[in-house]
Amino acid sequence: MTALTDLRHKFRSLFDHPALSWLKGESARRDVCGLAIVLVACLTFLHNLNDPNKAFWDEVYYVTATERYQEGVASYASHPPLGLMLIAAGEAIAGKNDKIDTHPLALTKKTQKETPLPDGYNFYGARLMSALFGVMGAFVFYMIMLTLWNRALTAFAFSLIYVLENAYIVHFRAAMLDSFQYVFVMAAVWVFLQLFLKRIEKPALWYAAFGTLMGLAVMVKVNVVVFAALGGFLILRDTYDNRAALKAYIPRALKASALMVATFVAMIAAVFTLHVLVSPNNPPPDSAAGNFDRQHMPQSYQDYLAGERSLSPQIVWDATRGYYSFMNNDFTHIVKTEPNASTPILWPLMAKAITYRWDSSKGITSYIQMIGNVAQWLTAFAALWVALVMIMRRLSGTSRYLKGPEFSRDMNLLMALMAMYAVFMGVHMYLGTKRVMYIHHYIPALSLSYFILALVVKIGFQRFKVAVKWQAAGIAAMLAVFLVSFAFYSPLTFHKRLTLKQCEMRNVPLKVVNCHVPKKSVVRPQTRP
């Protein structure tokens, strides 16, 4: 105990140095910690973006969509257009493929043997914006942790969970949509927390911000529309708080609801308008992708693309209507199961990990594996159950401590986040009966489980005062375990070479990869049906 106390005093004495004394202020520490977490995220998310230099998983679809945006060719896709436009923006900024002929990609919906990637194709640009949003996600994650803890150093420590999360790194540094969706929806969660804690003076602007961010998130992938429930939580909570003067509160509730809905719809309209503006060209007649899209394009929109009608709100509406028809058709005909599919209720236990790609040569295999940081996932899973027990004890009145005013703020936050987690999982379990689901759909809820973990730890130390002196050491020990776990699984994250024996070692304590016994130089990409 004495050694630990001495170490703590020595650490604090560092800030007495004239060059570091300004860090004694909490405001300065918040800024420095925010910058630090971004810099650490750059190391993990921006590392060697062109490896592998072949498409994997949904990249086989998105690189073709990117080419159509590059050429300004009208097209539809299985997801709303915002994420695809952002991927195309990264490709345009990087310009790595300007000197090769990428036009054949625009003619197909998917790269395959018949329509391969052109020789020398570089994935840096296609993956750039996704990786940058992955870095932005680290900052948003930090801001949420800062809201939960109100202490910069502790928030920074818990934010390392994000940059050590293998699943985020695999998915966010690929040319896929999830990092865009993540940043928008988690920024909406942060806005929700400010409103929930009543930290702001002009809530109307914050309700508008919540609707805006939700609109942007849904324009990447529709499944996160479930997070709109947070807006409902706010209205219900404020209705309860104002139950004594309900008549006076109703106009404010209607205004808040109208702002959220109006900004949400405005973002959808803005994104589809931008989609039409940047894609004014008719698909070539020899384009298989274009001929498929035309089946869902209203005639008025086709006339606009042919130059026979001018752009108008009606054209944008018709183009949007056709886009919805394409997405609905895709949803209707999508398979309900396949070998890589997983059951949502098992997602917290990392079922089922997906081998996005493996490349083998001379007895060595490199993998891109959709797995998480096993230590972090299992700890978060345990935290969910601890949180459930805490909530039940508080609501039942069996714990006089958790009902105390000193726990009110954090317990209310815990209940709100657990409710959102339950809504997310419930909706996705229902969707799992309608269509195939994959473990990467769990990404937003995984962060909710990490926020719940942070609150469980915080409340635990508040409850057991005698343990407070061990808080820093306990959190440091937990992060050390997470770091070791991250390093252990990182070869599967970064496409590093492994022998069969080294690969099999990664299947303890959970089976996370089907290790391949290489016989000759082969390549096996995984694609979604």
What is the element layout, followed by pairings?
Elements: H1 2-13, H2 26-45, H3 59-71, H4 82-94, H5 124-149, H6 152-163, H7 166-172, H8 178-196, H9 203-218, H10 229-241, H11 246-278, H12 288-294, H13 299-305, H14 313-333, E1 354-361, E2 364-370, H15 374-396, H16 408-431, H17 443-463, H18 471-493, E3 497-498, H19 500-505, E4 522-525
Antiparallel strand pairs: 1-2, 1-4, 2-3
Helix pairs in contact: 2-5, 2-6, 3-4, 4-5, 5-6, 5-8, 5-17, 6-18, 7-18, 8-9, 8-10, 9-11, 10-11, 11-14, 15-16, 15-17, 16-17
Pfam family, one: PMT
Function: Protein O-mannosyltransferase that catalyzes the transfer of a single mannose residue from a polyprenol phospho-mannosyl lipidic donor to the hydroxyl group of selected serine and threonine residues in acceptor proteins.
Enzyme class: transferase
Model description:
With 529 residues, the protein is mainly alpha-helical. It has 2 domains: 59-333, no CATH class; 344-525, no CATH class. The chain is 60% helix and 4% strand. It has 19 helices and 4 strands. The radius of gyration is 25 Å and the shape is globular. The model has no long low-confidence stretch (mean pLDDT 88).
